[in-house]
From TrEMBL:
Residues 7-126 form the Response regulatory domain. Keywords: ATP-binding, Nucleotide-binding, Phosphoprotein, Transcription, Transcription regulation. Coiled coil: none annotated. It comes from Telluria mixta. This is Sigma-54 dependent transcriptional regulator. The keyword Transcription applies. Pfam families: AAA_lid_14, HTH_8, Response_reg, Sigma54_activat.
Length: 443
């Protein structure tokens, strides 16, 4: 796939700090710019907006209130396509961290940082920026029956305080569901803080989630707010929850049961006021495997379960998504408006879309950049050349056989309690084949 060039900017008055971050991130992301004076920011922005900005919150020696950095953050959020901002500070007290997140920062890192933590934060910010800055991405797109069901559940659950677990394959939009829950909740004015649980290093897991006190360990140069404290009054989105080791799951369970956390080095616990929304791409049979996920933690997290359907199970949404993203990237790259050839649309709707909406969006971007014909052709999207089965005239026998197949699949799913893997084994077909049949029958 062809994707826009990644651009990172480190805005920090300490040149040694900026250089260290630049050297670390350059290996992963190529060119990384640094800037030590926010007064020169506008000149840099004139040459293009970075994808991610690592922003120091204090520039004047002796200042620790973060006001200078917050002013820059406000400036960046006014841009047409704002960058994802990660706040950098050596004074990560809770109010400052919360204020930065409320003003649009996607994460915060304390100095000195853990290299793995900083790299993971940048990776997550790049992924979220790609989705969050797509017009319409803040809303769940699609009006096929499976998506209408998801939206109905969100509308019913959002005003409550129930913990919600969002299940679905990679690329279906689990974080968009979590954001929709937050935006429709009574906590909408508070912080929405997303944490990639699989990216948290084991050694700093407790510090990242629960915080620490100055002097608690060798590198604890100042007090640090954990994610639970930073999201106070808002929603804490625990993404990729299924990637947590069992030892970390036990610590998370304790915090959820007691509704309090104890920062490392503190002598008393602190109450927490967050709503928990979690997500995983694990199948439900894997989630219920005690060797993978603790049952007691699962029951704390899945008070309500929202299953986001894969794109192949809501094919009626594909034409609208294609037209939306093609139009979006035509404007972004200043390319001429072109129609989608009918033959291409037919084949794209028949494609199973591994990678789901994220893959469709990338394919549209590729088509806009590389397609050169009068219309968009199937080949412009960079997908495999497989064509759908030839159409035929349906007979009464087809309808009877179709109804029988649909009823059989529905019965298997009911007996398997919605477990796709188990239903596929019962039917004697692969998961991929079952998903195709689900899309075919609109189940």
């Amino acid at each position: 796939m062809v994707e826009p060039r990644t651009r990172l900017l480190i805005l920090d008055d300490d040149r040694d700090v900026a250089c260290a971050a630049q050297m670390l991130l350059r290996r992963r992301h190529g060119a990384v710019a640094t800037l030590d004076d926010p007064a020169r920011l506008d000149a840099l922005l004139a040459d293009g907006v970075p994808d991610v900005v690592l922003l120091d919150l204090n520039f004047t020696p002796g200042r620790i209130d973060g006001a200078e950095g917050l002013a820059v953050l406000d400036r960046l959020r006014t841009l047409a396509r704002p960058p994802a901002v990660i706040a950098l500070t050596a004074y990560a007290d809770v109010p400052l961290a919360v204020e930065a997140l409320k003003r649009g920062a996607v994460d915060f890192i304390t100095k000195p940082w853990d290299n793995a933590r900083l790299a993971a934060a940048v990776d997550a910010a790049l992924a979220r920026r790609a989705a969050a800055n797509v017009p319409g991405a803040s809303a769940l797109m699609g009006d096929a029956a499976p998506m209408r069901e998801v939206k109905a559940v969100i509308a019913g659950v959002a005003p409550t305080e129930a913990n919600v677990m969002v299940l679905g394959e990679n690329g279906v939009g689990k974080e968009l569901v979590a954001r929709a829950l937050h935006q429709a909740s009574r906590r909408a004015a508070g912080t929405f803080l997303a944490v990639d649980m699989g990216a948290l290093p084991d050694a700093t897991f407790e510090s990242e989630l629960f915080g620490h006190r100055k002097g608690a360990f060798t590198d604890a140069k100042s007090d640090r707010a954990g994610r639970f404290q930073a999201a106070r009054g808002g929603t804490l989105f625990l993404d990729e929850i299924g990637n947590m080791p069992l030892s970390a799951q036990a610590k998370l369970l304790t915090a959820l049961e007691r509704r309090e956390v104890t920062p490392i080095g503190a002598d008393r616990p602190e109450p927490v006021d967050v709503r928990i929304v979690s997500a995983t791409n694990l199948t439900e049979d894997r989630l219920f495997d005690p060797g993978v996920f603790r049952a007691d933690l699962l029951f704390r997290l899945n008070t309500i379960v929202i299953r986001v359907p894969p794109l192949r199970a809501r094919r009626d949404d594909i034409p609208g998504l294609l037209h939306h993203y093609l139009s979006l990237y035509e404007g972004q790259y200043q390319r001429p408006v072109r129609e989608l050839a009918p033959a291409a649309l037919e084949r794209l709707c028949a494609w199973d879309w591994p990678g789901n909406v994220r893959a469709l969006r990338h394919a549209c971007e590729r088509a806009v950049i590389l397609g050169g014909g009068a219309d968009y052709r199937y080949e412009d999207f960079g997908l495999a050349p497989a064509a759908p089965a030839p159409a035929h005239v349906e007979t009464d026998q087809d309808f009877r056989l179709g109804a029988l197949e649909r009823d059989t699949i529905a019965a298997a799913l009911d007996k398997a309690r919605g477990n796709i893997s188990l239903a596929a084994r019962m039917l004697g077909v692969s998961r991929a084949a079952l998903y195709r049949k689900l899309g075919k029958h609109g189940i």
